[in-house]
Amino acid sequence: MSLLRRRFVKQSVNSRTFLQFLADRSFSTVKIPSGRRKTTEFDKLINEAGSSGDFETISAAFCLRSTAVSRGKNAYDILISRLCKLGRIEDALIVIGDMSNGRLGLTPSTFHPILCSLTRKNKIEEAWRVVESMRSKSVPMDVTSYNYFLTSHCYDGELETASEVMRKIEEDGISTDSRSYDALVLGACKAGKVEAAMAILRRMEEDGVTVLYSTHAHVIAGLVEGGYYAMGLEFVMAYAGKDLGLDSESFGFLAGKLVKRKRFGEAKIVVKEMVLRGLRMGDELRQFYERNVRNDDDEEDDYD
């Protein structure tokens, strides 16, 4: 498939406007703090309000902070991020319009929370309209922005559509990164093409690209879901002994997958290997070991 033969290099993109301007809002219920405050205090208030979902307090704190720092870009970025976590995408876009009118420096990272939120919800058309808005404001796409689209398509196993995103990346001359490859491996596994996923993984290693733990997890999941249990163990063993963190994640992930599929025989083998290597286990795997593996080991010791 063209996606798998494509050379993983370069990208960049831009957009058209579809923002609205924020109507006046009333914050009469929020008490304005007396005395002079540091901007970090307002940042803390914005973060706390965002965690609790208190949009009115977020907005009020933002307005106060903006006054304190003459509408600094950092205050806007914080507000946009919090609004996206609350699912208030339209309000986040309006804030960007305010930033643009105030001639603050818009960067790709300003749009990241919006693109991330929309692509996760599979609102791809809306996300591309945001890209058009970026273009109209002379804000280029970066690799992180593209990765949101790539991951969304690959998660659904849409390799042809993901291939189109890769084409845009190449045309825009932006280098791909570990997240880009991770998405491609995920996409190949979701489409049932585990061999292709492993080929991409080898390509990452050849090109010196850092391989994420999640990339290994995608391959393990693909092998188990395809019924290739022995190959799953072989794959994990092939990378064992190089990275303790990776070993704990990979062996544990494989064992957990096997237990869920009731492949208890294979799961026991993996868990025993974890014990031999001194790898940490999660609570569920520890319970599985105590109930199904420890007694077997004790009986073997008694026999010896």
TrEMBL record:
Pfam families, alphabetized: PPR_1, TPR_24
Intervals holding PPR repeats: 107-141, 142-176, 177-211
Residue ranges occupied by any Pentatricopeptide repeat-containing protein-mitochondrial domain in the UniProt entry: 46-163
Gene3D superfamilies with a match to the protein in the record: Tetratricopeptide repeat domain (1.25.40.10)
Keywords tagged on the record: Repeat
The UniProt record lists the keyword Transmembrane helix: no
PANTHER family named among the record's database cross-references: MEMBRANE-ASSOCIATED SALT-INDUCIBLE PROTEIN-LIKE, OS03G0201400 PROTEIN
Family the entry assigns: Belongs to the PPR family. P subfamily.
Name of the protein described by the UniProt record: Pentatricopeptide repeat-containing protein-mitochondrial domain-containing protein
Organism in which the protein naturally occurs: Arabidopsis arenosa
